[in-house]
Amino acid sequence: MNVHPIFSSPICEIDIKEDLTRLSSIKDYKFINTTSTGSRNSFNTENLSVLDKFPQEKTNLFFHFLKYKNEVLKFNSTEFRITTSWGTKTLPNGYSQFHNHTNSVYSCVFYFDDVPGGNIEFTTTNNSFQLNAPSEVNILNLRNFFITPRKNLLLIFPSYLLHRVAENDSEQIRYSIAFNIFPTGSIFAGDSSITL
Question: Global pTM?
Answer without folding.
Answer: 0.94
